[in-house]
Amino acid sequence: MESLRAYIIARIAVEDRGYDTPCWIWQLSATADGYAQGLVPGRKSPGAMHRPSYEAFVGPIPDGLCIDHLCRVKTCVNPDHLEAVTSRENTLRGLSAIPHSHCRNGHEMTEDNILFSSSGRRCRTCYNEYQRTVVWPRKREEILRARRHRRAMRASGNQPFAGTVSVHSDGGTNP
Ligand SMILES: [Zn+2]
Ligand SMILES: [Zn+2]
Q1: Per-residue pLDDT tens digits for 83-105
Q2: Ligand 1: distance of its center to the CA of 16 in Å?
Q3: Which of 14, 16, 22, 59 has the highest CB neighbour number within 10 Å of its CB?
Q4: pTM, entire model
Q5: Which residues, including other chains, have CB under 8 Å from residue 163's CB and lie 6 or more apart?
Q6: 118 CA to middle of ligand 2, Å?
Q7: Alpha-carbon span 159 to 144, nearest angstrom
Q8: CA–centroid distance, residue 3 to ligand 1 (Å)
């Protein structure tokens, strides 16, 4: 009988879907809720493939835990993208993936108020406010300090420098 690992590997396509490493996209059908569906060797009816894949490549799933897709691609069965978590954690993660209509400060997350960064979506209004009240004053202080420093350097460095240029011992002919 075909091993579970071989069964899975023969039915995936490795595709970059934007996660750290490529996804293993299941090539057969999907379950009603969109997960990879297959007929695990030795079983009678088809079912979702992420649990069998975790069990085949990682190990047994501890009692009561469910499998979370770190890559958020439901048809992916890459064991590196699957993590056993409590169902509470899974629900929280799912919720945080759903676009919020308002940021934590109550600004509406309309399309032109959303900034996309490596850490996810952020509120542009809050970002600008942070830049204005925290980042820019700090930067401004740095610039002023650098300017003061340059001025002090110039003041202390000018005197000896001016002295040496104005004196020529060879009678005035410079190379
Ligand atoms: Zn994946
Ligand atoms: Zn905001």
Answers
A1: 888 877 777 776 565 555 777 78
A2: 8
A3: 22
A4: 0.53
A5: none
A6: 18
A7: 24
A8: 22
